Amino acid sequence: MNAAASVLEVRVPDMGNFKDVAVIDVLVKPGDSIAIDTPIVTLESDKATMDVPSTAVGVVEKVHTSKGGTVNTGDLIATVRADGAKPAPGPADAAAPVVAPAASSPTPPAAAAAPTRTAAAPAAAPAPGSSAAPATAAPPPARAPGAPPAAARGAVLTPRSLLGVPTSYRSDLAPIDEPGFTRAHASPSVRRFARELGVNLAQVMGHGFKDRITHDDVKAFVKGSLATPAATPAAAAAPASARAPAPASTPAPQPVVPAVDYAQFGPTTVEPLSRIQRISGPRLQASWTTIPHVTQFDEADITELEQLRASLKERAQAAGVKLTPLAFIMRACVRALQEFPRFNSALAADGASLIVRKYVHMGFAADTPNGLVVPVVRDADRKDVYELARHLGQLSEKARAGKLPPTDMQGGCFTISSLGGIGGTAFTPIINAPEVAILGVSRAAMRPVYRELSFVPRLMLPLSLSYDHRVIDGAMAARFTTWLAQVLADPRSLLEAVP
Questions:
Q1: Which residues pair with 10 in a beta bridge?
Q2: Cβ-contact 228, 252 below 8 angstroms
Q3: Do the beta carbons of residue 81 and residue 6 sit within 8 Å?
């Protein structure tokens, strides 16, 4: 085999419709001995990260791409000198002996083209006495101010909550030392994981076999970074005595969702959000991301409640009141808050104490043509079922007409979100901060309930209680829903006069 015929080419396998895929790491250099499936480069698209494995056995003669560049399907990424071939004339390779390859088997074409990562095979060390000097890695391309790092260009591949990493960690908090990242003792999958999170492997201490950096080491580094507020470059350069004391805690910035051009997939239209949605959206997001939500599910037997409500329908109509199930549920919730005062509290700004309210202002979610609003029935503990029903009707009418003043949506202690008139079996309502709990009510349904050695039809009402786990634990939440279900099952007590 002559020298020309002994040079083999390694090209980018079929990557489907992906174009200009970024090269985030070059794993070999001229003079390295490689075998079948040895990773050559690491590519990163907006959907996945993959290693391009070698399809040849021999010594790397030249790498035709560099870190920070882009490649497409079929591009040449490396040329490999087959075993036993005479190296091309050149001062760097003149005295380099031939290196024996590692035993391997041919790779099927499908395996080479699969968009999954493969474990990196250890490269053979240069033979003793070799004069071939390793090539110096090309410096990473300069990043424009404000441009996201390589990991930020693509979507996170694995849910961070499943990996034990806080979702609020931002990958652009610190620049990555590319030479140090390349020298770090870590597998390709750990490197990919670190790039997704923007972790500089040069700063991570490995605790795996032979000090190899593991996934757990990367997770621990991220958690430690979030727990310790980062200092600005100026503050880091200043003497310790001149630095200002660091704040007790610094909230981590929220992750950024990458923008998507939806028109490339088909026709689209743009519908602006309503004013209510634009206002409530950030508040809901803040509540969901800052409050540790837990939801307790339960059921209440309201068979007798519905029978009682039907018997009082004419009397209520004569008084100009529409007696809905929500009035009974609200009255039951008022009594539950009196029985469990912690549900009528708010967490103090310092997070070290509770503010327990001595009043009960009850909010309820109202569905309007312009979006969801939460009117508040003030002093609900001083109103009986009929008065609660009257206020519910008046506030709902104002909300639907868009005439609800801001004062009627402030000061709530506890919120009820009832979807019973629409449907559903259960859901997870978002806490209306600064409240610490919210009750979700779904549609009641007749179900067979086992009582006294037989099944009887009962009307069961699904309850979903979301609560702030910093203030309320699971046992207290279970006691709350159990007590509430018992009160709803005895509706006569809800008609008692309010003292």
A1: 78
A2: no
A3: yes
Residue 369's pLDDT is: 86
Average pLDDT, the chain: 78
| 469 catalytic residue (yes or no) | yes
Write the pLDDT tens digit of every residue in 140-159.
444 444 444 443 333 333 44
Q: Coil, helix or strand for 498?
A: coil
Q: How many helices (H) and strands (E) does the chain have?
A: 12, 19
User: In a 10 Å sphere around its CB, with 0-12 CB exposed, 13-18 middle and 19+ buried, how is residue 208 labelled?
Assistant: middle
Strand boundaries in 223-327, DSSP class E: 293-301
Cα 485 to Cα 11: distance, rounded to the nearest angstrom: 67
Catalytic residue among 64, 293, 361, 469: 469
Bridge partner list, 456: 449
User: What value, to the nearest 5°, has the Cα angle with vertex 270 and ends 275 and 432?
Assistant: 35
Burial of 108 (0-12, 13-18, 19+ CB in 10 A): exposed
CA separation (Å) from 318 to 314, 327, 388, 498?
6, 17, 16, 21
Assign 190 a pLDDT band (cuts: 50, 70, 90).
Answer: confident
Q: Can you spell out the DSSP letters for 65-95?
A: --TT-EE-TT-EEEEEEETTPPPPS-TTTTT
**Prediction pTM value:** 0.54
**Beta-carbon-side half-sphere exposure of residue 360 (alpha carbons within 13 Å):** 20
- How far are the Cα atoms of 54, 105, 198, 217, 487 from residue 255, in angstroms, in the given order? 36, 44, 12, 22, 44
Cβ–Cβ contacts within 10 Å for residue 450, how many? Answer: 9
Calculate what percentage of the chain has a pLDDT beyond 70: 72
How far lies 152's CA from each of 188, 199, 420, 430, in Å? Answer: 18, 12, 43, 29
Exposure letters 234-248 (e unless 16+ CB within 10 A, then b): eeeeeeeeeeeeeee
Q: Taking a C-beta distance cutoff of 8 angstroms, is the pair 333, 300 a contact? A: no
Q: Which amino acid is at 39?
A: P
Q: What is the DSSP string of 368-391?
A: ETTEEE--EETTGGG--HHHHHHH
Task: Residue 330: name the closest of 408, 391, 282 by CA.
Answer: 391
Say if residues 463 and 439 touch (Cβ distance below 8 Å): yes
